[in-house]
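assembly run, all chains below
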Amino acid sequence: MSIIEPFRLLLFLVGIMAFVGLNAAYLVWVERKGAARFQRRPGPTEVGYGGLLQPIADGIKLLSKQLHVPPGADGVLFRAAPLLVMIPAMIGLAVVPFSESLVARDTNVGLLMIFAFGSINVMAIMLSGWSSRNKYAIISAARIVSQDVAYEIPMLLVVVTMLMATGTMNLNEIVQQQAGWFWRWNIFRLDVNPLMPLTFIIFFVCMLAETNRAPFDMAEAESELVAGAFTEYAGMGFGVFFIAEYANIILGCAFATILFLGGWQSPFGVWSGVFWFLLKMYVLVFTVIWVRWTFPRTQFYNLLNLSWKLLIPISLSTLILTAVVMKVLK
Amino acid sequence: MDHFPAQDLIVGTVFLLCVATTVAGALLAVITTRIVRAVCGLAICCVGIAGLYYFLHSPFLALMEILVYIGAVCVTIIFGIMLAEPDLTYESKRDTTVLWGIVALLAGAAICWGLSRLGLQGPWPAPPAQVSDGSTKAIGVSLLSTYSMAFEAISLVLFVAILGALVIARAGRTKA
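ok done. output:
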């Protein structure tokens, strides 16, 4: 370990925290503005030009509120849950290659790392619901487990398919394999699996469900469960869950970009760089917001049926198809 | 200077932190009376064990520990708790509680004594040279060659378990 390495890691840590914080703050603004446009109203306009200072005002409001632990709640777990929920997204971003050299930890098991720590996310939200000692929160927690377990299976199957196609778990190598024109991207690699675009759609749907975004936001169904698992959280406790939601969206979209859309590779084979990565990622983030304000919330049983009866069989068959195609063509 | 100052000290501290996490998690899992906290103790213990695997140069195994034991096992246990009685009821002390406590203490002391004796006085085999490089490829190759029998047996066990779960879930369900 050279003398520079710890300082480099420290710098990346600060950078990732700033990236997550800024993104969370301004994605809330984008979401509110976007929702307003979809519903033909102006959205936030009062604070700053076009409401641009609104996230800062919101932050000050949340910080100045009292952190209240409801009587009868499990105090330790109630306070620990917001901390736990931030960990996976932060650790996941540490292995994301923003460009060829702009990656905090270029490890050979990067892909696995995102999934391993992503599984803590389920546990954190569930603990928040359980420890609140609130009926709505507990119902929401039970929903979260069944939903996230159901959607983790097709997602992992899709990732295994991609793993067979790429042959490596190093995210930077996966991006490097997709160099050249845009038809070299994994989403268009029909020679490995003719159903590759479908695989991408399954991945995207699972990502929406895993991040608990509408139309799959059964955990936070305002109309039936108040605010779901976060009902009892006030002030910045709630704010941290909000930041974590956007951090997970960022991580999911970054991961989809790396796995399917060529990461920091340019679509034309020249001028690759971090701006391509950010552009692709934010297009996906916008799609996530777009989907939320376009589709109504699904019913819980339909949600589980979609996963168990549609997504898992399809992703399993694409996995087998990939294996057969690769064996035959080899 | 190509080394970070006090590098060995920092690495040693992190190692001790992993050990402390494992022990503390295990103690929490055993001592606490609230079952949800016991599961949290199990999860903390698994994080510590994952750290120890990392120190043994096997990052793949460390991540698998987190993915399987925290992501699957602990979540399943909590799911089971949620299906059960949600209220925190404490069992009142029975007359035989003290007696059973003494028996458990004796058994625990005996096991502790035996293991310590084995560890301190028994012959230790020479520490093996690194068996493989711990990479994903090495693990995969050995799973499908040297240990293929165990691998297939485990997959068979899991298959039977899935079938059993299906049978239990189907019983008592009418065709909708």
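Chain B touches chain A through 27 residues (CB under 8 Å).

Residues 135-176 of chain B form one domain.

not gonna interpret more than that til we talk
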